[in-house]
Design brief:
Blueprint: E1 2-6, E2 10-16, E3 29-36, H1 38-49, E4 53-59, H2 61-71, E5 77-82, E6 88-94, E7 100-104, H3 112-128, E8 133-137, H4 147-159, E9 164-168, H5 171-180, E10 186-187, H6 191-198, H7 206-214, H8 217-220, E11 224-228, E12 234-238, E13 241-247, H9 258-271, H10 276-291, H11 301-307, E14 311-315
Parallel strand pairs: 1-4, 1-8, 2-6, 4-5, 8-9, 9-10, 10-11
Antiparallel strand pairs: 2-3, 6-7, 11-12, 12-13, 13-14
């Protein structure tokens, strides 16, 4: 069984405009109204692949009610905590040239008692169920910092030492956690996020990324790193070995959520005690299957299965 945790979910609205003009009235058409949050997308994908999945998260207000109703349509189980605080909104505006502008609320402060409630609920499940992996996903609300993720990781280690911990976050949260000494088993940055952490220009060259990661003591200490490179494939660090995976070209219709789908594939692979090569296949096939679907954070099981043989994996060192 898999658990994903989304502390700071959102309701996402995708708008389309011919051309976004600042300081002017822009009339838009609503393209999508959907549940946002990395853990929701990853959990949905792992459940669609066929693994039993539980999605944890804070919800509240009208947006929380929307998330609850939408979740009832999905295959995963839910463990939502109603904080009575309105769940945030995130807006994306795309123009005719595919330029994207994002406006994301931070997420309102939440009473500390709810953080304790989530941690205690998670601890109870870890001690009573066969949980193979837990993923910590995305940003944190106002008033909560990276220490909470560290608390959760320490509790998971104490409650179930063999449970895999996947951390899918970026920016200051990732930087501070890597500085803390309490490390996850797996991280999955994209090429922009790893470049930001390394303080280097963005590159999709797997050999350059391998050299940069191997030269960084903090990254070297993480057992498994997936660096998603979009259509250029994926670089994977597994202890001291490095792999480069590429998939056959496909017709992408929606790349939003493909990184989250990769996390869903990773979690599903952990749940079935897969080898590292199988994990790479699952991750890349899930990301590709998501890109081939109009829905965000969604894969068709048949498409996912068809993509697995199309993943070419080579060893770099």
């Amino acid at each position: 069984m898999i658990i994903t945790i989304t502390i700071n979910p959102s309701v996402d609205r995708l708008y389309h405009v011919n051309k976004l003009i600042p300081n002017k009235l822009n009339r838009v058409s609503l393209e999508k109204h959907m549940v946002g949050g990395k853990g929701f997308n990853a959990g949905r994908v792992s459940s669609l692949i066929g693994r039993k999945t539980m999605v944890f998260g804070f919800i509240g207000g009208e947006n929380g009610e929307f998330i609850q109703k939408e979740a009832e349509k999905d295959k995963y189980g839910t463990w939502f905590i109603d904080t009575k605080v309105e769940t945030r909104n995130c807006l994306q505006i795309i123009d005719d040239n595919d330029n994207k502008t994002e406006i994301n609320e931070n997420g309102l402060p939440i009473d500390t008692k709810f953080y304790e409630q989530l941690k205690n609920s998670l601890k109870g499940l870890l001690e009573s169920k066969d949980i193979k992996a837990v993923s910590l996903n995305g940003s944190l609300p106002q008033g909560c910092d990276y220490h909470y993720y560290i608390e959760l990781m320490k509790m998971i280690r104490n409650s179930k030492p063999n449970c895999g911990i996947v951390l899918d976050t970026s920016g200051n949260i990732l930087n501070q956690i890597l500085d803390s000494g309490t490390l996850p088993d797996i991280i999955k940055p994209n090429e922009h996020e790893i470049a930001e952490y390394l303080g280097k220009p963005v590159t999709t060259d797997p050999n350059e990324l391998m050299t940069d990661i191997q030269a960084n003591a903090k990254l070297r200490a993480i057992p498994i790193i997936f660096v998603s490179l979009g259509a250029k494939g994926c670089l994977v660090k597994h202890n001291d070995n490095y792999f480069y995976a590429v998939q056959k070209p496909v017709k992408a219709v929606n790349t939003e959520g493909s990184g989250d789908a990769m996390v869903g594939g990773i979690l599903a692979a952990i749940d079935k005690d897969a080898t590292i090569k199988e994990m790479i296949q699952f991750a890349c096939a899930a990301g590709t299957a998501n890109a081939m679907n109009i829905k965000t954070g969604y894969v068709d099981h048949k498409t996912f299965e068809e993509q697995i043989p199309n993943i070419n994996i080579s060893m770099l060192n």
